[in-house]
């Protein structure tokens, strides 16, 4: 199972939450909160939904509670690896 990249997350943030963030920004400041980036809880829920549809795998319940992109990627990628 492929890991979610910062590029994929940035694309999902735009698609699901309407927030444009560069992958570089996510790499340089991985602990910037989703709230600071402009992604609210509904946006994060949309990102989780898109990932579930794309990968055909349920995401962890805690995914929609993640506060930062780095925390989100760590949780989701750990789950994807465990399910591989």
TrEMBL record:
Q: Which InterPro entries match?
A: ACP-like_sf, PP-bd_ACP
Q: What is this protein called?
A: Acyl carrier protein
Q: Which SUPFAM superfamilies match?
A: ACP-like (SSF47336)
Q: Which domain of life is it from?
A: Bacteria
Give residue ranges for domain Carrier.
3-84
Gene3D superfamilies the record matches: ACP-like (1.10.1200.10)
Q: Which PROSITE patterns match?
A: CARRIER (PS50075)
